[in-house]
Structure formats: C-alpha cells, structure tokens
C-alpha cells in the first residue's frame, strides 16, 4: 500500500462514533485471525492481501475514508454488510491485518456507489432504519460523487489496483448488493453492541474493613518499627523497640 497522500475536498466534520465501533470490531477480528494464521496454515490469499502490514491503524484508515470520501455513516453500515457477506461466501479468506485495509476501501466505495444509484423514493425505508440506528444521516453533507481514481488516492493504492479490487469484490459478493430494512437494522444493532466492549469497566467497590487490619510503618531513622492496629471498636498504636545497630 502506497504512502497516503493528502487529498483535497476533505470535510471538517469529526468522525461519528460509528467509525470507532466498526474499527474496533474489525481490528479485533484481524488480530484474532493473525494469531490463528500464525498457528495454522491453509489461509486463502486473495487480491486484497498485501505483502506487508500497512503502517496505519484500522481506525485511522476509516477516519481518513470518512474525511475524504464524503460518505454518510449509513454507507459504512452497508459496507459492513458487504464485508460480512463476502467473508461468508469465501470462508478461506479471513479478515486480517494484511487485507483489512483494501477490503475496507473497496467495500465503502461499492456501498457509496450503490447508495448513490438508489432512487430517492426508494430511500424511504432505509432512511427510517437509519434513524433507528442512532439517527445517522442518510446522505452526505454534499452531493459530490467520486470516481475510482479518487477512492484509490484516498485508500493509498493505484487506480489500476482499485479497479481490480472492485471487480473481484463484486464477483465475490455474487453482485448481491441489495439489503432489506431488517438486515440493515440487525447490523446497526450489532455495531451498537460494540459500545459495550468499548466502555471502560467500572471500578470495583471498596472492600469493607476487617475487624483487625494491621499496618506496619517502618521508621527510616532507626530500626524501630511502628505497628498500627486498626480495630472496628478502637484505634491503638503499639511500638516494638529493636536494638540499635552497633557503630
């Protein structure tokens, strides 16, 4: 994957939480499959497989796509559906750190093109499901449409490779691009469940004091040790004297 260049036309809108949820899920899947590949052999290698791991994280890569591709958050849900369909049709191709970036830029591009081709009157049902999924806006802020060369620049690959990945991805899906409201809603719910994994665990409640808690406080000036006994009914300090070291 080539070095990512600065692309013109990027918006200043901060990435939605959906990007964090999706990147967390895909990063966890990629890490798990990386460990499995290190122990086993026989994993399929496709055109999406890179020679080495890209130096950009999944989250940063998704944020870059969101910034420059002008896609609505709903587009990333559709891309997630396509990724799941693709991997279910090709069990030997596992999402890992070598192919997740190319799979992402391809699935987002295909999803963006599919949503652009849907007629406005056919968007009504999808729009209702989008509202149910944290009120994600259905359309991007600007009605701008990009070609494969632009998506290739966003993804850090060549236009020739972008064209190849798109064709392979479409055939891999069997050109099954349509999705029902129930399907869209179920994938929204799955991504929303990812928030439970991202939330920090609450601190454990403080343990109750024992009847007798002994705390030893060393004296740094001599060998005297002060032992403090904390009782539920009284507080006593006992000192134990030790012989001084001979000079």
Structure report:
This protein is mostly helical and 247 residues long. It has one domain (15-198): Cyclin-like (Cyclin A, domain 1, Orthogonal Bundle), CATH 1.10.472. It is built from 8 helices and 3 strands, in the order ααααααααβββ. The protein has a 3-stranded antiparallel β-sheet, with no helix packed on it. Helix 2 (58-69) runs parallel beside helix 4. The radius of gyration is 28 Å and the shape is globular. It starts with 16 loop residues before the first helix and ends in a 7-residue tail after the last strand. Residues 119-139, 211-217 and 223-243 have low confidence and may be disordered. It comes from Cuscuta campestris. This is Cyclin. Belongs to the cyclin family. Cyclin U/P subfamily. Keywords: Cell cycle, Cell division. GO terms for molecular function: protein kinase binding.
Counting H and I runs of at least 4 residues, what is the number of helices?
8
| Helix content range | 40-55%
Low-confidence stretches: 119-139, 211-217, 223-243
Please provide the ordered H/E string of secondary-structure elements: HHHHHHHHEEE
Number of domains: 1
Q: Could you give me the name of the CATH homologous superfamily?
A: Cyclin-like
* Strand line-up across the major sheet: 1-2-3
CATH class membership = Mainly Alpha
How many E strands?
A: 3
Report the structural category. mainly alpha
The end-to-end distance, rounded to whole angstroms, is 71 Å
The share of residues in extended strands comes to: 5-15%
Major sheet attributes: 3 strands, antiparallel
**If you consult CATH, what is the topology?**
Cyclin A, domain 1
Cα shape: globular
Mean pLDDT: 74
């Amino acid at each position: 994957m080539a070095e990512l260049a600065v692309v013109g036309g990027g918006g200043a809108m901060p990435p939605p939480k959906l990007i964090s949820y999706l990147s967390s899920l895909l990063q966890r899947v990629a890490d798990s499959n990386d460990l499995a590949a290190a122990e086993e052999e026989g994993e399929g290698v496709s055109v999406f497989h890179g020679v080495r791991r890209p130096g950009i994280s999944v989250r940063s890569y998704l944020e870059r796509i969101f910034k420059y591709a002008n896609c609505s958050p709903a587009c990333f849900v559709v891309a997630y559906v396509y990724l799941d369909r693709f991997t279910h049709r090709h069990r030997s191709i596992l999402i890992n750190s070598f192919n997740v970036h190319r799979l992402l830029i391809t699935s987002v591009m295909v999803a963006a093109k599919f949503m652009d081709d849907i007629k406005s009157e056919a968007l009504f049902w999808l729009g209702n499901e989008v509202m149910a999924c944290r009120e994600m806006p259905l359309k991007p802020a600007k009605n701008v449409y990009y070609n494969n060369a632009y998506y290739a620049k966003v993804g850090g690959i060549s236009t020739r490779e972008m064209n190849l990945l798109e064709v392979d991805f479409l055939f891999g899906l069997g050109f099954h691009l349509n999705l029902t409201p129930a399907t869209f809603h179920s994938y929204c719910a799955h991504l929303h469940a990812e928030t439970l994994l991202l939330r920090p665990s609450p601190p454990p409640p403080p343990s109750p004091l024992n009847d007798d808690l002994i705390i030893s406080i060393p004296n740094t000036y001599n060998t005297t040790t002060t032992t403090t006994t904390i009782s539920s009914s009284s507080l006593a300090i006992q000192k134990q004297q030790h012989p001084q070291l001979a000079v």
